[in-house]
Amino acid sequence: MNEIIQKMRKDGYPYKIKGNGGYTAVLYDMQPLFDGDYMAIYRYPRGECYHDLLEIQEHFRNCLSVYKKFGGNDMFMIMFLLGLIGLGTGAVRFFSCWIAESVKGDRFSDHRTMVWKNVWIHFGVTFVCFYLAFHI
Asked: Is 35 left (phi over 0), alpha (psi -120 to 50) or beta?
């Protein structure tokens, strides 16, 4: 990279951007303006385009606000649904073990101990999913 591009990177211009219809552009040069100000020249596959730093920052700010608006809710919904699925399947396992113990009277075999351990691990994972859903 030449010195001009390094100076522009230090000023906050990103090296690669995606713009003008989704095309990827690379920082190419600078266009001097009045009073020592300048704009970046980005090279797209079909030509060059000028972009101001404020324009790029505004675009990133908009993208970040969209991510915060929908991205956080998506993660909440995923973790919450995993928690609900875990709660439902854990409840089915719990009641099936409880009914089997009541009917058969087998409370102390190694198999029953392992099954109950799996039920409680299942509820623990469910709790972790709910915790993460509300704290992410």
From this structure: left
Q: Name 133's Cβ contacts closer than 8 Å, sequence gap at least 6.
A: 75, 76, 78, 79, 80, 82, 83
Both tokens of 15, joined, read 């090296």
Spans of the chain below 70 pLDDT: 1, 20, 59-75, 106-111, 135-136
Residues 6+ apart with CB under 8 A from 82: 129, 133
Strand pairing report for 47-51 and 23-32: unpaired
Quickly list H helices, 3-135. 3-11, 53-66, 72-104, 110-135
Whether residue 46 contacts residue 91, with contact meaning beta carbons closer than 8 Å, is answered with no
Q: What is the pLDDT of residue 126?
A: 80
Tokens of 43: 């090279």
Query: Where is 123: in which H helix or E strand?
Result: helix 110-135
Pairing of strands 47-51, 38-44: antiparallel
Q: How far apart are CA 29 and CA 43, in angstroms?
A: 9
Structure tokens at 107: 């409370």
